[in-house]
Amino acid sequence: FFSVIFPLYLILIQGPCNKRVKPVDKSASVTGIITPMKTPALKRLGQSIQRSISFRTEARPLPPMPIRTRQKASSFPRRRNSQLWSDTVDSLSHELSTKEIKRQEVIYELTQGEKQLIEDLSLVKKVYYEPMLKLDIMTESELGQIFGTLDSLIPLHEDLLARLEGLRGAEKTVQEVGPTMMDWFPCLEAYITYCCNQVGAKALLDQKKQDRRVEHFLRLCQESSFSRKLDLWNFLDLPRSRLVKYPLLLKEIQKSTPPEHPDEEALPQAMELIQRIITEVNLKTGEAECQFYRRGLCYSEDSQRVSEIQASRFLYCHGELKSTKGQKLHVFLFELVLVLTRPMAQDREGPVQFQVYRQPLPAAHLHLEDLPDGEPSSSGSFRGAFTGNDKVKNCFRVSATGRSKSQSHCLQANDSFNKQQWISCLRQAMVQSRDRQAQSSHCKPSERLSPDPALYNNIAELNLNSDSRDRQAQSSHCKPSERLSPDPALYNNIAELNLNSDVEMPDT
């Protein structure tokens, strides 16, 4: 039934294809196929500028995500055929400077990005939500958890699109865009609810993919032309990706805005406002993710329920690491404590759970040692993880002393990039926890340990999951906050990590 109904449904949506394909002469060379065309000077200039600001990178499977590994570039087509502002202008009554043309190109990119986002979100509802509900592939309650408040975001972006299109004058140029964005940005507080829901939504979607009917439906959709080879989660993550795009676009518009322009004062104010909103979304989604994983922890002993777990407000990172015996562990670095867990067998209908392994290690008492490749751990070799003459690689040791007996764990990441992310996050957690302890003891902390206010808003963005392969460019138990607005100061604190590997910035 499903295999018959779904193809028919796709035909109804896309309509029959009446295009004829003209065969190409086998003897024709590539240069013979491509006919040279004359490009007006204005269009050539616009194309050159557009390549330089290059904002189009639709939904790169983020994400959402846990400690990530370097991956080969995907061959999936993720870009639409795009049009430049200069392509829409037939002629100009007066000459525009190169700077003004660049400004108009970026404003046009902002407008087109809104239009494409609206199309994608509407497609998600029409092609995924409604068919899965009608075909009883998922219940209405399950779909409501996965799609969250997506419906409420479409009117917001339709409103902005209408405002931006209303700004275009007779010559298709826009004079002021700053006041419009300032007036509209407060609407984006609706993103707090949507992004906070994403952690649970991603976990439920991954769980439902174990159902053969769900997996088959989603695979058919991904293989269809309308999806551009993106899966459902990539589409659900588009709003979050769009949110972090606004500061970048406004910054580019500002660069091309001449002195004494009406936008000169409004644009910095708009950028400050959107950055505050993004910070708030980061903070709330970080808290939501922390709560989600705290609820999933299972304790074998009451002594494992340390106060630092409940007192933590966010996660620095989490992901899969191996123990000295080659055993897979899922490790959570909360704000105040490092928790090693063993993944539990998941019930299709039950919540995600993790069995706490050994005693949690308070970050304030942590000691970290970077182990050189080839050096054996203190507990012996990694049995089961290596064979023959393979050397131990990408390992580090964490230990703690204090309220309980000493503990030491030698852990192995799946590559050097993954290892450095863990080490950087662990160092940040140790510094911040000790600084917090010093302040609570009324000791004057050293400047080196003074907390960075931006850190708490941005560090939650580091959802470091070693499972990124399954996500195809990111996402899975992804930390919605990572995801949002990187602060340059954060990267300095985190040893210049490049953790923004695949996050889509729709059209970025």
From TrEMBL:
What is the protein named?
Rho guanine nucleotide exchange factor 3
Subcellular location as annotated: Cytoplasm
Query: Where is the region Disordered?
Result: 60-80, 465-488
MF terms (GO), sorted A to Z? guanyl-nucleotide exchange factor activity
Upper classification of the source organism reads: Eukaryota, Metazoa, Chordata, Craniata, Vertebrata
* Pfam families assigned: RhoGEF, SOS1_NGEF_PH
Give the main localization category: cytoplasm
One of the protein's GO biological processes:
intracellular signal transduction
Q: From which organism does this entry originate?
A: Sinocyclocheilus grahami (Dianchi golden-line fish)
Q: Which domain of life is it from?
A: Eukaryota
Q: Which PROSITE patterns match?
A: DH_1, DH_2, PH_DOMAIN
Domain PH: residue ranges: 308-431
Keywords assigned: Cytoplasm, Guanine-nucleotide releasing factor
- Every copy of the DH domain together lies at 102-284
Q: What does this protein do?
A: Acts as a guanine nucleotide exchange factor (GEF) for RhoA and RhoB GTPases.
Q: Does the keyword Cytoplasm apply?
A: yes
Tell me if Lipid biosynthesis is a UniProt keyword of this record: no
Q: Give a GO cellular-component term.
A: cytoplasm
